[in-house]
Amino acid sequence: MSKTSQENKVKKTKKLAVEDQVIDQKAPETEVTTPVEETTDLSAVAELKTARTAKVRGKRYQKVRKLVDANKLYSLKEAVKLVKATSLSKFDGKVEAHVTILDIGNAGEIVFPHLEASSKRIVVLNDTVLAEIKGGKVNFDILIATPITMPKLLPFAKLLGPKGLMPNPKSGTLTDKPEDALKKLSVAKTVIKTEKKAPVVHIVVGKVSQPIAELEANVTELMKVIKVIKIKKLALCATMGPSVKIEIVK
User: Fold this and answer.
1) Distance CA 85, CA 109 (A)
2) How far apart are CA 138 and CA 190, in angstroms?
3) Which fold has domain 64-116+188-245?
4) Which residues, listed in sequence order, are joined to residue 237 by a DSSP beta bridge?
5) Domain 122-186: CATH architecture, name and number where available
6) pLDDT tens-digit profile of 171-223?
7) Is the Cβ–Cβ distance between 98 and 235 less than 8 Å?
8) Which of 223, 212, 215 is nearest to 247 (CA)?
9) Domain positions in the chain
10) Which of 245, 243, 216 is nearest to 231 (CA)?
11) Residue 146 to residues 120, 135, 136, 153, 173: CA-CA distances in angstroms?
């Protein structure tokens, strides 16, 4: 074989080797996956969910609801009459006031002139009560003590503490005047407080069975304590009845 032929053969071999190397160094092909189209109709799901959770009122409610004009502002007396007439509960339901005021927070405390006193069992610490506590009996909801008798309760802190029954000055249950505290705590005092994020007060002003005059007096007292000038909207309703809007006379 001539020298020229040998040189050409060597060049061809080197070229093939280089091509093989280049092929080996190529990045592997990447598999392309076509995204699957979302087939769920989110709006349809939302509509279905709303339809399932929508509250359907019964025939009795629909019937009494027609007695109340949702666009009318009633006088207090008219509103109380309607609330009593549209109560659907089989038990002695509560009458609730829903008040929209100017500011969020506490709007004071109220003692309604016609509202049942607290049904909580309130006792002043004495030898009889102490003996019951020693026996593991807790037959009260509120315990009043004086600074002198308070040390007698310390051995029972683990029994009373977790139940929130240990007397303390902040709650008015640790005092030098236990009899005054007993009277004060027995009164149906209610804190007027709005929702956390809205200036709306929800408060019980009586029971459906109460006379119209008593419920009127309770609502009037509520408006007086909050101050009429601060009230934007006011409505009454029974526990299971429709809302009745009240005209606010300023």
Assistant:
1) 29
2) 25
3) Ribulose 1,5 Bisphosphate Carboxylase/Oxygenase (3.30.190)
4) 96
5) 3-Layer(aba) Sandwich (3.40)
6) 899 999 999 999 888 776 788 999 999 999 999 999 999 999 999 999 999 99
7) yes
8) 223
9) 64-116+188-245, 122-186
10) 245
11) 20, 21, 21, 11, 8
Partners of 235 in the β-ladder? 98, 245
- Residues 43-98 have pLDDT tens digits of 555 555 555 555 667 888 888 888 999 999 999 999 999 999 999 888 888 999 99
CA–CA dist 185, 161 (Å, integer): 19
- Other Cβ atoms within 10 Å of 46 Cβ, number: 10
**223 φ, ψ (degrees, to nearest 5):** -65, -35
What DSSP string describes 43-79?
Answer: HHHHHHHHHHHPPPPPHHHHHHHTTS-TTPPBPHHHH
C-alpha distances in angstroms, 119 versus 122, 185, 198, 211?
A: 9, 11, 30, 21
pLDDT tens digits for 222-242?
Answer: 999 999 999 999 999 998 899
- Cβ 108 vs Cβ 225: under 8 Å: yes
Q: What is the DSSP string of 116-149?
A: PPP-S-EEE--HHHHHHHHTT----SEEEB-TTT
- Helix, strand, coil percentages in the chain from 3-state DSSP, rounded to 5: 40, 20, 40
Instruction: List strands edge to edge, sheet with 244-245.
Output: 200-207, 94-101, 231-238, 244-245
Q: How far is CA 155 from CA 133, 158, 171, in A?
A: 10, 8, 21
SS3 175: coil
